[in-house]
Design goal:
Number of strands: 0
Radius of gyration: 18 Å
Order of helices and strands: HHHHHHH
Number of domains: 2
Distance between the termini: 41 Å
Largest sheet: none
Shape: globular
CATH architecture of the largest domain: Orthogonal Bundle
Amino acid sequence: MLLDLIKEDLKIAMKAKDTLTVSTLRMVTSAIKNIEINNRISDGSSPVNESQIIQLISKMIKQRKESADIFRTSDRLDLEKKENEEIKIIQKYMPVQIDDNKINSILDVAIEETGSAQIRDMGKVMAFLKDNYSGQMDFGKVSVMLKDKLKS
C-alpha cells in the first residue's frame, strides 16, 4: 500500500538524516492521518484508501507549484528551490501520468460508459474519470478536451 511505502521511505530518510525528505514525508503522513480522523468522525470508518492518498498528494503538489510560482515572482529563489525539492519528493508517490493520445481514447470510453451525449452530461463523465483515473491525469486539461468532444 502507498501509505506503507511512504512510512518505509520516512524511516530510511530518518536513518540517512535527510532533513528535507523527513519533514516532507512527515507532512504527508500527517495529512493522511487527518483524512483518517475525518473519515472516522464522518462515517465511522478510519482506513484511508489509495484514491484518497493520491488525491491528497496531487493537491499537495499543486499547492507547492503555486507557492513556487509566488516565490519566483517575489524573487525568493531559496524558498522556490525548497518548494521544488518537496515536489520532487512527493511526486515519487504519484501514479504515472497518462499521455494525451491515451486520454482521448479514455474519454471516448468514459463517454460511452456513462451514456453521455451533451455538454450537460460533463459532470457524470468527470466523476467517472476521477473515480477511475485519480492522480493519473490533469483534470483541468481533461475538462477542456471533454468539452470539445461533447460539443461535436
